[in-house]
Structure formats: C-alpha cells, structure tokens
Specification:
The chain folds into two domains: about 35-110; about 125-260, DNA integrity scanning protein, DisA, N-terminal domain (YojJ-like (1). It is about 55% helix and about 15% strand. It has helices at about 15-35, 35-55, 60-70, 75-80, 85-95, 95-110, 110-135, 150-155, 165-175, 210-225, 250-260; strands spanning about 140-145, 160-165, 185, 190-195, 225-230, 240, 245. The radius of gyration is 23 Å and the shape is elongated. Belongs to the adenylate cyclase family. DacA/CdaA subfamily.
C-alpha cells in the first residue's frame, strides 16, 4: 500500500514571510476601503466575475464575449474607479503610517492611561467649542479624517493648518466670519482646512429638518472613513455622523466617548 506524499506541504521560511506580507497588504487595503463605496464596487466586480464563470460554463458565447470585452479593460477600470483609494494608499506609505500605527498599538498596550489622557486633552478644546456653539445656536460642521487627502480638499477648502483651539473653532463658525460656510476638517491633531464644500448624501430617507450641513456631514461619512460632528443652527442639537449613519441629540458625555474612540 502506497503512502501519501506530503512533499507539497513543505513550507520554507520564505513562504511564511511571503504569506505574512500578502496578509498585511490585504489587511491595509481593507482598512483603506472599509466603510467606503469601494467595498460595494468590489462586491459588484466579484458578482460579475462569478457570472462570467457561469455563462462560460454554460457555453453562452454572446454573453461570454461581452463580459470578456468588459473585463479586458479591468486594470484601467480599477485605476479609474479606485483612484482615491490608491492615492490614500500611496500617501499612507509615504508618511510611514504603518510604523506609526504599530507604535500606537504598542503605546496602547503598555501606556494606555497615558494615551487616554493625551487624547482627552486633544478632544477638550473641541468639546468646549461645541458647548459654546450649542449654547449660542451657532451652526457648525466639524469633520475628522484619518488620512488628509490634500488634492481632494485643496480644491474646495481654505488651508488653515493650525493647532486645535476652542477660540479658533468658534471664530471660524461665527456668522460674520468669511469661513463659516462649509466644514472644518481636522486631521493629525490639527485644523487642516476650513470652509470646505463636501459632497451631499443621496439618502432620501433622512428627516425633513436636516439641511445642507447635515447632508454634507452624512455624505462625507458615506464616501470616506471620516466622522462628522454637526451642530444645528436652528435647535443647537448635536449630531454625529459615521459610515452614512447619524446619531441625533448627542450629549457631551457621548460626544467625548465617540471622539475618544474615533479621533
């Protein structure tokens, strides 16, 4: 009786490194496209690929030819469709975000309390500004992004690149300020830009009292990994938008917890 040949199971150190690197690459690509429209596009492409295999197996020559023509320009289509994600991926590599993220994890594991104190110190000026603007019913839209895409925001924003402070946020959103229309974008612990024009959501199921400010905050959270804090000019109510969903009437305690988690 012949035994089984397990030679194909032999794994070298190079194979292990290769698998780990591919796994890391897939993970970081996933973190870039997570909660964005790119996920839906990938699902659509997967469905088209499965459909192609089915029609080819059934020898449907016309459909097979049409889908093959469509897939023949797949690489170019991928570049066009995922140009923002590709740009963010290259930006992430250029800024050594991988290493920074790993350092953050080490800090989280061995210095959690210190990181929480530092994070709360960064959040406090934002919370204080929101308290003041809620009291005076000053409309505001503050967007937090993990990766600041200069090309995306530069076309519709005024560059600020300043330290986060309560007075600066209040000044920007004052009705007489030339920058009060639009959103403030915060990234890398700085106010990067102000007066930003953002894409509006296409969701037609939102409450009727939501104006352009709310729709812009929800819209940017649908298409990117950003979160948005919205203060209503009419009621002073604070809303929090993430992944296309909005939490209304957020208390300051809840806002602090949400920002501490996402910012």
């Amino acid at each position: 009786m012949k035994g089984f040949d397990f030679d194909f199971l032999k794994v070298s150190v190079t194979d292990v490194v290769d698998i780990v690197l591919v796994a890391l690459l897939i993970y970081y690509v996933y973190t870039l496209i997570r909660n964005t429209l790119a996920v839906n596009l990938l699902v659509g492409m997967f469905i088209i690929t499965v459909f192609y295999w089915v029609v080819k197996a059934l020898h449907m020559e016309l459909l097979t030819t049409i889908i093959e023509k469509f897939m023949s320009v797949g690489i170019i289509a991928l570049i066009v469709i995922f140009q923002q994600e590709i740009r963010r991926f290259l930006l992430l590599i250029g800024k050594n975000a991988f290493l920074q993220k790993n350092k953050a994890w080490w800090g989280y594991l061995f210095g959690r309390k210190e990181i929480e104190r530092n994070n709360l110190a960064r959040i406090k000026p934002i919370i204080d500004a929101c308290k003041s603007m809620k009291k005076t019913r000053t409309g505001a839209l503050i967007v937090f992004v993990k990766f600041y895409d200069e090309q995306f925001f530069a076309n519709s924003c005024e560059v600020v690149d300043a330290k986060i402070s309560k007075r600066l946020l209040e000044s920007i959103f004052q009705k007489n300020s030339p920058l009060h229309d639009g959103a403030v974008v915060i990234s890398e612990n700085k106010i990067k830009s102000a007066s930003c024009i953002l894409p509006l959501t296409d969701n037609d199921q939102l409450p009727s009292q939501f104006g352009l400010r709310h729709r812009a905050g929800i819209g940017v959270s649908e298409t990117t990994d950003a979160v948005a804090v919205i203060i209503s000019e009419e009621t002073g109510e604070i809303s929090y938008a993430k992944q296309g969903r909005v939490r209304m009437n957020v208390s300051f305690g809840e806002l602090e917890k949400l920002l501490n988690k996402d910012f």
